[in-house]
Design brief:
By secondary structure, the chain is an alpha/beta fold. The protein is about 45% helix and about 15% strand. The protein has one domain: Spore Coat Polysaccharide Biosynthesis Protein SpsA, Chain A, CATH 3.90.550. Strands 3-2-1-4-6-5-7 form a 7-stranded mixed beta sheet, with helices on both faces. Strand 2, helix 2 and strand 3 form a beta-alpha-beta unit. Helix 1 runs parallel beside helix 2 and helix 1 crosses helix 4. The longest helix is centred in the middle third of the chain and has 18 residues.
């Protein structure tokens, strides 16, 4: 079965193109596939990335770029990538590939062998040892809210690694949240429809992963998005 990897990209760190090539080749080696790679340039200073884009285009034949000028948010970006994905299986993660290729392959393998329709990466305790204190606190508080108010079997909805079969793509594209809680909206919709098999898959971080500083201005809008989900 063919597979598409979708990466949202907004002002990526220096050397991101080398990281992508390395991880992409490693995934292809594990899977035996030549994956389609969709990179969504979610606004930002794209002119400064011209050399990096040329580097990627020269090395990855299956590369597809989606570009627009205004930063719209991670959820919006991944929807744009999913909408053009050609693969039978679709996996998305962050542009710096923070999770091990073994973790990505684990989700791919489960989808390919038809164990489930949606694979949801879930973080282990080792993950939180790498996370700044406030991020850890917010993540655990959100999981508490999900458990209390949404009663879903999976409470770790915000891990940046998920995959699904092409048949699930229309449900993903029905999400409306443009920023971080799009993951929660998607997983909740999966459980509400009861049409798809969802499985939580333990994943691991690569060593020396660096987290960007958090923009705390997003907290209020995302809290409002959470409240909207309660009444949707």
């Amino acid at each position: 079965m063919s597979v598409t990897l979708v990466l949202p990209c907004y002002n990526p760190p220096a050397g991101w193109e080398q990281t992508i090539c390395s991880r992409y080749e490693e995934f292809n080696s594990l899977s035996g596939e030549q994956a389609e790679l969709v990179i969504v340039m979610d606004g930002g200073n794209q002119a400064s990335q011209a050399n990096a884009i040329t580097f990627l285009e020269q090395r990855i034949k299956q590369l597809r770029l989606v570009r627009y000028s205004e930063n719209r948010g991670k959820g919006y970006a991944i929807r744009q990538g999913v909408s053009v994905a050609a693969g039978d299986l679709i996996i998305y993660t962050d542009v710096d590939f923070p999770y091990t290729c073994a973790s990505i392959y684990s989700i791919y393998q489960g989808l390919k062998s038809d164990e489930y329709d949606v694979g949801v990466g879930v973080k282990n305790e080792a993950y939180y040892a790498h996370v700044p204190y406030m991020r850890r606190l917010i993540s655990r508080f959100l999981r508490f809210l999900i458990r209390i108010f949404l009663s879903m079997p999976v409470t770790d909805t915000q891990c940046g690694l998920k995959g699904f079969r092409k048949t699930v793509a229309p449900l993903f594209l029905d999400t409306t949240i443009d920023r971080y809680l799009f993951d929660l909206e998607f997983i909740r919709n999966c459980f509400k429809t009861k049409k798809f098999r969802v499985k939580a898959i333990p994943v691991a971080l690569n060593e020396n992963v660096h987290f960007r500083s958090m923009d705390y201005r997003i907290l209020l809008p995302e809290m409002l998005n959470f409240v909207k989900l309660l009444f949707k």
